[in-house]
Amino acid sequence: MQAPTRTPATLRLEDFPYRLSDNVRFADLDPNQHVNNAVYATYFETGRVTLMKDRSYGLMPSGVGWIMVRLDMHFRAELRWPGTIEVGLGVSKFGRTSVTFDQVVFSEGICVASAQSVSVLIDEITRKPTQLTEEIIAKLQPWLRRGLPGRDQRAGVKPAAPASRPRDRRARRSP
What we know:
- By secondary structure, the protein is α+β, with helices and mostly antiparallel strands.
- It contains two helices and five strands, in the order E-H-E-E-E-E-H.
- The protein has a single domain, classed as Thiol Ester Dehydrase, Chain A, CATH 3.10.129.
- Helices cover 13% and strands 31% of the residues.
- Strands 1-3-4-5-2 form a five-stranded antiparallel beta sheet, covered by helices on one side.
- Strand 4 and strand 5 form a beta hairpin.
- The longest helix is centred in the first third of the chain and has 16 residues, at 37-52.
- The model is unreliable at 3-8 and 152-175 (pLDDT under 50).
């Protein structure tokens, strides 16, 4: 029997170790007088970029950069102006070349939106994905999301596999 998992309704800001505050701006509103759905992508971006680009955290070694390859958002409640928000972020998974972040936006103690994003480490010259280094993984440890059942501290990191031949990515048809 598996342990029960935390449902989205029980998201807690405390489970997201990287946090920042921001204001809801009048310009964030749509004709319905609530924050437009597209603005949430900016809130989430602010959380990711503020963490990743801050040189004091050491997440931007020379010669590499980060690109976001996926963003899945869930809108949970209306957010109106005026107001303030708390943006929370936590690392939920490491891939070979990627980091998955769980993110939330809270206002007045209520989770108004959540997201999961995937960022890939790339070589700045070739623009190709490059393997996460042990140093980057170690420097992301303080930002691991709390409250995820059944996950060890390294969140699924696997040792580098030997090079293999590329997979055939062409569409396959059923016989």
